[in-house]
Amino acid sequence: MPLSRKKQRFDQAVRLNDELVNRLEQMNGKPYPAYRDLEGCWKYPSSLLFIDHVQNDPYAPPSRLRLRIEHATAKFPSSLYSTRHLWCSIYPISAAADNYLTRIVSVFSTETSKSSNWHGTKGGDLSIDKPGQQVLERSSITLDQESFNILFTYGFPAQGGTILGDKAAETFRTTIPRLISNLLYETQNKEELKAFIESIEDQEYHRQKIKESGLVAFVANGAVLPRASGASDKPMKGDHLVKFHSPKDLEHVFTLPNRGEIRGIGIPAGITLIAGGGFHGKSTLLNALAYGCYNHVPGDGRDFVVTSSDCVAVRGDDGRSIGSVDISPFISNLPGGTLTTSFSTTNASGSTSMAAGVMEALELGADLLLFDEDTCATNFLIRDRRMQRLISSDPITPLIFKVRAMFKDHGCSSILVIGGCGDYCDVADLVLEMRDYSCYNITENARRIAVEIPSGVPEFEARTFGVIPQRQLHPSSIPVNVKTSARGLTAIQLGEETVNLFALVQLAHESQTRAILNAFRRIRASTDSKVVLNGILSQLQEMMDRGGLNALTEEGHFDGFLARPRLLELGMAVNRIRSAVFEG
Ligand code: ADP
Ligand code: MG
């Protein structure tokens, strides 16, 4: 619809919800596009309902609706969404309240669609974004000083191409008022809501405190690290579960504002190795640490597994494109004299993808890198003395020779899962062993063995790491004037090009992927001249700080299915756009 016509509808006086219901009843049997007349603002006794966009036909993506409820009506105490402690920015607290309410509405909408008995027709379901185990800032419910807004979708019901007005009328007569009443403070489980918010507050506080104590990670005693299955992010239950316990000598104690004392392992900045036999829980620990950059819902089991918010899990991503990245700290003298100080390829190997992954993470400000031998290119991780002698022309300086210089020169720590290569004992500050899912400190033993069985590491270790240049991006090279879509968690379609985000292991929710697509559009629209990648990403973060996630969408377009990505995932995604042009 032309914007002007749409604008006219929104300029109309606010109409009453009774009229909405009457109109819908009168529309019964009419052709589907008649629903369009409903766009605009409708007044319910205790809130405003905005019908922002009505779908063109029953098979199109559902229509977008928004409810605005004044705080004077909903009566949520202001402490639930404002800063109670100076150390805590408003965002996590507000996000906690938003998330809690989104979860309430999500359950409500699932129950409503289950109980709906209109079979054989299309549409009729309300739906709101469904959060996972991580508590992310979302656009589904937003609290501001005067009111809060709930963004959801509704499939206007139809039989074939004709309007089922009675069915729609029923939704707006009974379901919407029930939804509103579900959102009032008086209908909430107040203890649960308070506990939810306090837990997020504690997790946020804790993340800050571990940093101040020189730690990069913390895992609470009693934490549940394994998940219910490979396909579920819910905690494992049952007799086989072994809860986490810190080795005594590595135990740290923190006092959190709400929960009080908490004990667990503190992993100091530096190089940490997680060793152990196969199937003993190494990757499970590392995965939990990777998600430790996010807050979790109470009861997740990882709610007090906390890592630096700038930690990046790096994995092999062969086949990806690389744009003008300086990978020379790891790779030089490539065959054919290819320059590695500004390295580009449309088809990276395992090792070049890892070198680029590390350099890009450092460029984006990572202060902790996580590596799991299961998903890393071995030749990027190590080369032993024999191979060193055998192959003299290998262009790769493996991570083992650089990992300490990376920490010394750039303050970036590493935690590595290595079960197969003892050479790493030479460079590790801390060596942990996972045995039968329990954690042991074996650092002294590792040191002793390193002396007894020398490796070639001291001979080849680099003294300096090298520089980390800030690249520039040409925003106009991002193709967005084509058909674009976010496809699940790990793919974004830009016309013909599929941006593969499979290696972004810390991407936690599909709504983050949708937000990344919106960010691509924003970057494309920002300027025609080249920009520093980090600069433009910081600008996007500031926009989200100020205007929430819908600051990323087009003016006047409200999308309730967005969750905030970290600057790191945004950058990693831009780095994987094949057509994007960078300058090193
Ligand atoms: P590794 O990386 O050491 O080979 P994984 O971390 O992949 O081992 O774990 C192997 C299996 O053990 C997985 O199925 C995982 O769910 C399970 N597991 C991991 N940690 C625990 C635990 N603490 N309690 C029970 N089962 C666990
Ligand atoms: Mg493993």
From TrEMBL:
InterPro entries: ABC_ATPase_C, ABC_ATPase_put, ABC_N, MRB1590-like_C, P-loop_NTPase. Residues 190-464 form the ATPase of the ABC class C-terminal domain. Residues 18-186 form the ATPase of the ABC class N-terminal domain. Residues 483-580 form the MRB1590-like C-terminal domain. Pfam families: ABC_ATPase, ABC_N, MRB1590_C. SUPFAM superfamilies: P-loop containing nucleoside triphosphate hydrolases. It comes from the Eukaryota. This is P-loop containing nucleoside triphosphate hydrolase protein.
